[in-house]
Amino acid sequence: MSLTNAGLWNDEGVSQRTVAANGLEFPVLEAGEGPLVLCLHGFPDHARSWTPLLRRLADQGYRAVAPTMRGYWPGGAAPDGRYGGSALGQDVLALIAALGRDTAHLVGHDIGARAAYSAASLEPDRIGKLVGLAVPYGPRLLTAFVADGDQQRRSWYMFYFQTPLAELSVPLDDFAFIDRLWREWSPSYVLSDAERARLKASLAQPGVLTQTFGFYRQLFGAPPEDPAIQALEARANGPINVPSLYLHGAEDGCMAAYLSEGMEELFPKGLEREIVPRAGHFLHLERPDEVGTRILGFLGRS
Prior knowledge:
By secondary structure, this protein is of the alpha/beta class.
């Protein structure tokens, strides 16, 4: 595992380079020095949305790193074909090692939250603290996809992504599909034109849409045939023995906030769960000061 192409990009104290880990060359954004905090993005999003939090973490004495998740760049197709939770968790653990650390704190949003949960389930000794945003943990969520009409309505896009029509329709009319998701998921927030254009450009790169759909297609697909992968997936869905914080926007149009109720029993080392008022799915962008303060307070507490 190695670091390459350091310093290719700089935006007010946030630099970009490539980190070789787990068979992939991950583009990462980073800022600061100190204890490592990995910030993991979801869909339809990219690492840039963590920029405000990266700067704030750096100002408070952390080394903050936001990797691009597997599948989200042209060369980022899963080398093993896997986009399930255990693969995401293995990426996170490999990135910690590639960044020269034994342990790290994790902050994950949406699919990034799933990656954080998986890493902490697989190797809790390598995770200091965990913060999950917008996607709860545990079997209640999967049950909701098949038995909860409200969540099925919210998750319509996941079912649509199972079809080949998705690759054709999502880019139409300047990614109007993506605009709709952001509008429905965060009804009180409007992403700036400049950042919206950057996000769409990242999704328009060759192969990226099909690769990112892999997360959803494997979520609802047949279980892996390899018994070793089956066992790994089971471990990646076990109890999380890491002190954890969970934040969910009260106005989230993607995931129902009530699905996070009862998560505490899956976190033997403790879980603090909060519903953030006046925030939707992208709460780290909608309420950056409030969410950032809550994350920093949690990470800094002994």
